[in-house]
User: Fold this.
Amino acid sequence: MDFKDQIKQIGDRVAKLKDNILTEEATKTSFVLPFLQCLGYDIFDPLEVVPEYVCDIPTKKGEKIDYAIFKDGQPMILIECKHWQQDLDLHDGQLLRYFTVSKARFGILTNGINYRFYTDLVAPNIMDEKPFFEIKIDELKEQQIEKLKEFQKSTLRCFS
Assistant:
């Protein structure tokens, strides 16, 4: 099965199961982790996908983001997850705080259905206010699937 079919299958799964997903943890397990697997990441390799990655901010210690994807020993993508019914507009500040204190190049805010991709195009190491790419997993368009391929393990590049 190719990437396009796999990602569409995840969208179908989300549409079918969402009403049975009652917690944020269930959202991560049922929706977000299969999405990461589809992108080619080994969710069982703690050197590649790090759950509860520490992103301490100066005023608060022990802050953790849900997942960090590492490539070549560097955090590349930070992922903050919410329950599928959560409005993501209420949570982008949380991702921004984590992004600023890490060396990651991308941040993803998701509720398992909506995925917002952020980076630092405006100012270095400061997450942009608006996402540069956004998808709804159960309503994917062809060009969005092509753009998602840039985030696959095999194509994601480290930046210095």
About this structure: The beta strands are 49-54, 64-71, 74-81, 106-110, 114-118, 133-136.
